[in-house]
Write a structure and sequence with these properties.
Elements lengths: L16 H18 L1 E5 L1 E4 H11 L8 H27 L9 H18 L3 E4 L2 E4 L1 E2 L1 H41 L1
Antiparallel strand pairs: 1-2, 1-5, 3-4
Length: 177
């Protein structure tokens, strides 16, 4: 057994609020991949929706408006899934630079998610038209992306606030000298 020196306190791992939001978002996103997300004849888990989204966004039939809605929904879902990677990169970024790029990805993710809530997902199977049913995995997926977006925005706001505080301190030092 390794003994700690008496004068040294055990280290406590601390997280910033934005990191907690990001981790919660990542957890919800990961859980949503295992949960049933939509019903397309059978229950389809989130991971299958994730993988098939890349294929369905190119499945457009100009004569069939139902396939166009499905392609739009698949494209929005695919863009949202791709932006998750960038939200994580910029959300956990420890640089002190202010950048518009994280804001762009947050807006893209939120617009895609809101678009998915607005666009009715209508399908056709064996000549029958049906509205796709959404299950808990779909809403957990949306919640995960929204939490990651909020965490990323929060991080950028912290960087901005810290840079403003630093700028004010440097102004005070210049006026004092």
């Amino acid at each position: 057994m390794i003994e700690q020196p008496q004068d040294e306190q055990p280290k406590i791992v601390t997280f910033e609020r934005n990191e907690i939001l990001l981790m919660l978002g990542v957890g919800l996103y990961a859980i949503s991949m295992a949960l049933p997300a939509v019903k397309l004849g059978d229950d389809v888990p989130g991971l299958m929706c994730f993988l098939c989204g890349f294929i369905f966004c190119f499945n457009v039939d100009p004569a069939d408006p139902f396939s166009n809605n499905a392609a739009i929904a698949a494209l929005l879902g695919t863009i949202a899934n791709v932006t998750v990677f960038f939200l994580l990169v910029f959300g956990f970024d420890k640089s002190k630079e202010i950048s518009g790029v994280p804001w762009f990805f947050c807006v893209v993710a939120v617009v895609c998610v809101l678009g998915l809530l607005i666009v009715p997902l209508i399908g056709r199977r064996d000549g029958m038209v049906f509205v796709v049913e959404f299950y808990v995995g779909y809403y957990v997926w949306i919640a995960g992306i929204l939490l990651m977006s909020v965490g990323c925005v929060w991080r950028q706001l912290q960087v901005y606030r810290n840079s403003m505080t630093t700028a004010e301190k440097s102004k005070r030092q210049q006026t004092d000298n």
